[in-house]
Amino acid sequence: MAKPSTPVLKDELDIVIPTIRNLDFLEMWRPFFQPYHLIIVQDGDPSKVIKVPEGFDYELYNRNDINKILGPKASCISFKDSACRCFGYMVSKKKYIYTIDDDCFVAKDPTGKEINALEQHIKNLLSPSSPFFFNTLYDPYREGADFVRGYPFSLREGVPTAVSHGLWLNIPDYDAPTQLVKPLERNTRYVDAVMTIPKGTLFPMCGMNLAFDRELIGPAMYFGLMGDGQPIGRYDDMWAGWCMKVICDHLGLGVKTGLPYIWHSKASNPFVNLKKEYKGIYWQEELIPFFQSVALPKDCTSVQKCYLELSKQVKAKLGKVDDYFNKLADAMVTWIEAWDELNPSAKLPNGSSK
């Protein structure tokens, strides 16, 4: 089959990158990323100049821009934490988002071929998911695979895929205690598989190699209040993942995990991480049962409605765990208000009004 001359979804996908440094890492990604539009969210000191290699089509937002665009609602965007990336999701005008960290390089598959992570994410997003019944051959929509004997025919059409969660070779995505006891561990295991995460199953979502359908699930991809002035960090993508999964399950959307891999080049400092994660490690024992038991009412027919309902339940149930969750619940509402202001046409599907 002849390769199409234009890259897939060239005009329908933005690449969002949070950063505090010059983006030299893009040189390595040039053959894969150059055709696409980049949204760079600069964290930390807005007066610092971030250099972007020549030839990339990009827009760069720093804290001053975020404050100017969102005004008082800018309070919902984290500062000094990679959670600031979700501002890029909000200002994007495209149907799909791919987000990657600036310490992620191109990985090689077992044959030594460079992996085009973006292309694989797009394949994942453009093929259906099967959350209601597990296929033992993993993704039945992949070339050379299919549904196994005993798989109900009524479920074989699948559902739209909202999120594609990619993995990492080299430095694994560990929490600080695991980093401390396994400082030299590296992930060398390449598993050539993609699977749909079953309905009712939560997972730890990592934001460093992640793609999603912004039109289907964008408003749920809020990375929370983290970093400066907050008692917690490094749980931004986890929070978004738990909220998103509960909403996908409610709305009948799919989440895939597995391929593609990127090469994660450097481990963050486990002692710094422990400080950021300490409360999260403690709180997650309450958070997981909360998300496992969340029920969204039938009249929550849009992502926004689901998310606002979730924020109410966060306040009611997790507010008792710590006052931080009351602040987070308020920020969730602010996030949706800001999203709807910047994305007026996508406000609510089916012409329904609030």
From TrEMBL:
Its EC number is 5.4.99.30. It is found in: Golgi apparatus. InterPro entries: Nucleotide-diphossugar_trans (IPR029044), RGP (IPR004901), RGP_fam (IPR037595). It is an enzyme of class 5 (isomerase). The record marks 149, 156 as: Required for activity. Coiled coil: none annotated. This is UDP-arabinopyranose mutase. It comes from Capsicum baccatum (Peruvian pepper).
